[in-house]
């Protein structure tokens, strides 16, 4: 078997890359600086809705891998299950070197608070005419960064689930162009799932 064979065929990763590319293109019209994080637009609404909806899908699958018998219907369930097995999950920092920006999109979980960008997602989704101003650059960045973080954990867990021996090298190709994690990811042409670090120094085995 080719050592680079990817049995996961990760469509979620390709979808993330498409959203990351859309976010990057938006920088042609709104400068990605702290002063502009409150700028809102139709494009940021679209990015916030699509990335957060994708998080909902992947978080369910991730939680099923972690605890197949647990209830995982909403963001509160995701928080309970993920932090039970990966207590440092919410500390993961995402970097955007191109614009000298950093994000910890799950950090509010550490303080027992609701996620600002997730609340904005629900507001824009259900009452857009009232909360359209929450479809901001900042919330869009946080949502796509949150998706990036979740995918790194999900694919690491999935690889371990299907290949506990670690003999198959699985890559996420191509790597992101906008997002990185200078503390946890190596500078490479691809992301090798078995090689990057996580804030949690252990890999949860999948036992409830």
Explain this structure.
The chain contains six helices and four strands. It is mainly alpha-helical. It has one domain (11-192). The radius of gyration is 17 Å and the shape is globular.
Give a summary of the structure in a few sentences.
The chain is mainly α. The protein has helices at residues 11-26, 42-66, 75-85, 116-126, 128-131, 137-162; strands at residues 94-96, 101-103, 171-172, 191-192.
Give keywords.
208 residues; mainly alpha; two-stranded antiparallel sheet; 4 strands; 45% helix; disordered N terminus
The Cα radius of gyration reads: 17 Å
Compute the separation of the termini in Å: 32 Å
Question: How is the main sheet built?
Answer: 2 strands, antiparallel
Low-pLDDT residue spans: 1-5
> Mean pLDDT score, rounded?
87
**Shape call:** globular
Strand content: under 5%
List strands and helices in order, with pairings.
Blueprint lengths: L10 H16 L15 H25 L8 H11 L8 E3 L4 E3 L12 H11 L1 H4 L5 H26 L8 E2 L18 E2 L16
Antiparallel strand pairs: 1-2, 3-4
Helix pairs in contact: 1-2, 1-6, 2-3, 2-4, 2-6, 4-6
């Amino acid at each position: 078997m080719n050592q680079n064979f990817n049995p996961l065929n990760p469509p979620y990763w390709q979808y993330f890359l498409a959203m990351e590319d859309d976010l990057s293109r938006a920088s042609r019209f709104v400068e990605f600086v702290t002063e502009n994080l409150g700028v809102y637009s139709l494009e940021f609404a679209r990015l916030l809705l699509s990335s957060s909806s994708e998080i909902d899908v992947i978080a369910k699958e991730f939680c099923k891998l972690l605890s197949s018998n647990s209830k995982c219907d909403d963001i509160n369930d995701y928080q309970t299950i993920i932090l039970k097995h990966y207590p440092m999950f919410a500390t993961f920092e995402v970097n955007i070197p191109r614009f000298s920006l950093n994000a910890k999109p799950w950090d509010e979980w550490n303080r027992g608070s609701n996620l600002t960008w997730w609340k904005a997602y629900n507001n824009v989704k259900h009452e857009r005419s009232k909360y359209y101003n929450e479809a901001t650059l900042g919330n869009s960045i946080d949502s796509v960064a949150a998706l990036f973080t979740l995918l790194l954990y999900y694919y690491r867990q999935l690889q371990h689930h299907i290949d506990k021996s670690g003999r198959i090298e699985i890559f996420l190709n191509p790597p992101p162009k906008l997002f990185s994690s200078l503390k946890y990811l190596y500078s490479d042409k691809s992301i090798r799932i078995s090689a990057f670090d996580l804030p949690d120094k252990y890999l949860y085995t999948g036992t409830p």
